[in-house]
Amino acid sequence: MKFLRVALIVFFVMFALRAEAVLDNIYQPPQLKPVDSELKVKVGDLASDFTLPCICGENITLSDFRNKKNVMLSFIPAAWTPVCSDQWPGYNIARHFFDDSETIILGISVDSTATLHAWVDAMGGLWFPVLSDFWPHGGLANEMGVLRSDGMAERAVFLIDKQGEIVFIHVEDINRRPPLEMLVNALHNQLVD
Amino acid sequence: MFRNHLINNFSLQIAVFICMLILFAPSSLKADSFPEIMLPMPEEEHSAYLGLEHGQDGFFLNEVAAETVLVQIFSMYCPICQREAEAVNELYYMIQDKGLEGQIKVIGIAPGNSAFEVSVFRDQYDIPFPLFPDPEFEWHKLLGEVGTPYFILVEIQDLGLLLTHKGAFEDPAVFLKRLSSP
């Protein structure tokens, strides 16, 4: 009986450390071509409406935010890779910058909903919706011109104002994170001023 | 009765052993001494904490007024570093409260983070010790590109590494004991 109790304690200690172990096991891709696509939209365009499944269990439609919230579409290349696992969690402690500019982030990846759910859970959760552009594969990424030839999306950011107009686009080198100060400046200059 | 006692003791020892294996797994830092890197001079309050003369352009770790320096490698983007921030602050205050300031000083280095990103982390968690951005991963490469969070206890005299720890340390009091007698 006592042995069982001790074994249970060990199990719970190991379980508590599980999230860190999961993040330790991230796939290490090789250095990739910085950008491998051509934009099909530009600043000033009206963003096409879309509906994608969210890991929260609902479908999210861009036009639902019209006249209510500015939107930052944050495309990342793939779940369970180092830079991506090190990008969105940073926005958890930068949330006030987005709140101040009445902006919601929609995180988007071409991974399946199930994969994204497991990955976001392992990272400890995010305050913004994460959407799957899995099927038709990379449909939205392709429409906006950020689908790479290897099937991943670029590490790209689109700011869309409350009227649905694209006011800022940035496609980062896939091997790096977009600098936070650049995003904060864009939020301030394009959406607050 | 005696047999049960033996089994219980044995179980406990196995349990503790497994936990120790998980918590104190060997690190992946390859160097055996801290690289001679020049860090930028921090603001006045932090220069005083490190015992540095304000006005210099930068400083080397062996100029810090302490027997050892605990270097935390972290990133504002790293969720484990975010969860661990309060525990690291607690460790810092524990060192002050126990009068161990002359023995251990704490600094943080943030690979791939800009000064702005480091300031977001500092403000969010009210970090009391000096933090240094390493936006182009220059120091990180010299440190063997370790993951975050990562802790290195450096002996000031010869920059030898007294202890390395990968990942969160969970209990600040337990970790401080390890730092005090590495």
Class by alpha and beta content of chain A? alpha/beta
In spatial order, strands of the major sheet of chain B run 5-4-3-6-7
Mean pLDDT of chain A: 88
Distinct helical segment count of chain B = 6
First-to-last CA distance of chain B:
39 Å
- What order do the helices and strands of chain B follow? HEHEEHEHEHEEH
How would you portray this structure in words?
The complex is a heterodimer of chains A (193) and B (182). Chain A is built from eight helices and seven strands; from the N terminus they run ααβββαααβαβαββα. In chain A, β1 (51-53) and β2 form a beta hairpin. Residues 6-22 of chain A have low confidence and may be disordered. Chain A is of the alpha/beta class. Chain A starts with a helix and ends with a helix. Chain B is α/β, with parallel strands linked by helices. Chain B is 40% helix and 20% strand. Chain B has six helices and seven strands, in the order αβαββαβαβαββα. Chain B has helices at 2-23, 44-50, 79-97, 115-125, 138-142, 172-180; strands at 38-40, 58-60, 68-73, 104-111, 131-134, 150-155, 161-166. In chain B, β6 and β7 (161-166) form a beta hairpin. In chain B, α3 packs across α6 (172-180). At the A-B interface, α1, α2, α4 and α8 of A face α1, α3 and α4 of B.
Write the layout of secondary structure elements.
The complex is a heterodimer of chains A (193) and B (182).
Chain A: H1 2-16, H2 18-24, E1 51-53, E2 59-61, E3 70-75, H3 82-85, H4 88-92, H5 95-100, E4 103-109, H6 113-122, E5 130-132, H7 139-144, E6 155-160, E7 166-172, H8 180-192
Parallel strand pairs in A: 3-4, 4-5
Antiparallel strand pairs in A: 1-2, 3-6, 6-7
Chain B: H1 2-23, E1 38-40, H2 44-50, E2 58-60, E3 68-73, H3 79-97, E4 104-111, H4 115-125, E5 131-134, H5 138-142, E6 150-155, E7 161-166, H6 172-180
Parallel strand pairs in B: 3-4, 4-5
Antiparallel strand pairs in B: 1-2, 3-6, 6-7
Helix pairs in contact in B: 3-6
